[in-house]
From TrEMBL:
Gene3D superfamilies: Nucleoside Triphosphate Pyrophosphohydrolase (3.90.79.10)
Family, as annotated: Belongs to the Nudix hydrolase family.
Keywords for this protein: Hydrolase
Keyword Disulfide bond listed: no
Protein name per the record: NUDIX domain-containing protein
Cofactor(s) listed: Mg(2+)
Keyword Hydrolase: yes
Nudix hydrolase domain span: 2-140
Amino acid sequence: MDLRVAAYGVVTDDDDRILLARWVEGRRVAWTMPGGGLEEGEDPELAVRRELREETGFHIETTELLGIHSRVIPASRRVRRDENHTPLHTLRIVYRAQVTGGELRFERNGSTDMAAWFTLDQIGKLQRVKLVDIALRMAGIL
């Protein structure tokens, strides 16, 4: 079984909008929480800051560890199927974070192609990955 550890940020603005990134790497294009996989030896808080900057253009600081979500994806459901056809265990570390600088911009040549702010009502109508609802529940928003 493969293991992927990733860190994500729940970021809101003064109008209670939530920052999401549009994931284009999977079987379908869908909105997700900004964040992503840790590099070897990387601290999760540094990873979420790096990933948010890459995907959204914003500099952030984490304010709270919200939780860890664990999921095993069967080999047949993996986005990138390997030659060994092994399941993937994902550990997703979710932080509450706030913007400290930067400006909204889109990632180029990455797993996301855009980022945007959404109200909770707008999110309810979006094509989104399950992590969005999981993270918003952890944050007490949903």
